[in-house]
Design brief:
mainly alpha, elongated, 10 helices, ABC transporter transmembrane region fold
Length: about 280
């Protein structure tokens, strides 16, 4: 028979997990996240424009390389070779300026949007009932506003721009390849099915792994916040060994969750490099 004791709820993992990770809820969260950028429409638009412009400029070097080899070096045409070199320098300068502008605008919008999100979260917490705070751990709530918002910061300022940029580069590179030589392009794209399969596997496994990392990090923060705030009670009742053992277990589970993500990255990215080498060898 289990006997209830006052305060035992503080040892539970309640509040450290998010149960609903369905696609519907994920899309709703993304819409809410994008809504935070609405007050900054002008700079958001400038961030998108500079991102697309930078991607287009980054696709120019292959054309200049073709011009340098075919019309400059092969025919010993110094004028054509000079134009190709000037084009390389101009493309590099433009890419530098556009990349700097895109980073600035993305960071500007992202930091202000997430600052607004923190204010909204804090205002929402003030409107919640006392029962909510009885049912949820204080540290887990703090983790939502600090650790999770910090993760969103990385997503907004780096993840979204990298996703859009890499997608545009992939599509643009495919177009350039087909324009230059469609046979070599088909040979290069032969590895795409394998790449898609490996990526689908990585996405499925990493989604669960990184979800566990966020949950375990919230539990670590919750345990620290509650143990430090209650240190007077812990020391008064000589509960230091028990608290130490509890935190060691929480920290160990957090380490295991991070280790899984390290293993997945260690398998996926070398596999991508191997497939890229295979595509080069096919050509």
């Amino acid at each position: 028979m289990r006997v209830w004791q006052a305060g035992t709820h503080l040892t539970d993992q309640r509040g450290a997990q998010v149960e609903d990770w369905s696609w519907g809820q994920t899309r709703r969260r993304l819409r809410e996240l994008l809504a935070l950028a609405r007050p900054y429409k002008m700079r958001t638009a400038l961030a998108g424009i500079t991102l697309v412009a930078y991607t287009l400029v980054a696709l120019l070097p292959p054309f200049f390389a073709k011009l340098a080899v075919d019309r400059g070096i092969a025919t010993k045409d110094l004028h054509a070779l000079t134009l190709a070199v000037v084009g390389f320098v101009a493309a590099g300068t433009a890419a530098f300026a556009l990349s700097a502008a895109q980073t600035y605008f993305t960071g500007w919008v992202g930091e202000r949007a997430l600052a607004d999100l923190r204010i909204e979260l804090f205002s929402h917490l003030q409107r919640l009932s006392l029962g909510f705070y009885e049912r949820n751990r204080t540290g887990a709530i703090v983790s939502r506003i600090t650790n999770d918002v910090e993760a969103l910061d990385q997503l907004v300022t780096d993840g979204i721009s990298s996703l859009v940029q890499n997608t545009l580069v992939l599509v643009g590179t495919a177009v350039v390849l087909f324009v230059l030589d469609w046979r070599l392009a088909l040979a290069t794209l032969a590895v795409l099915p394998l790449m898609a399969g490996v990526t689908a596997w990585f996405r499925s496994r990493s989604n669960r792994a990184y979800r566990r990392v966020r949950e375990r990090l919230g539990l670590v923060t919750a345990t620290l916040a509650e143990d430090i705030s209650g240190m007077r009670v812990v020391q008064s009742f000589t509960r230091e060994p028990t608290s130490h053992a509890s935190f060691r277990g929480v920290n160990e589970r957090y380490r295991e969750a991070n280790y899984e993500t390290v293993m997945l990255n260690g398998l996926y990215f070398p596999a991508v490099d191997v497939l890229a080498s295979v595509a080069t060898a096919i050509v």
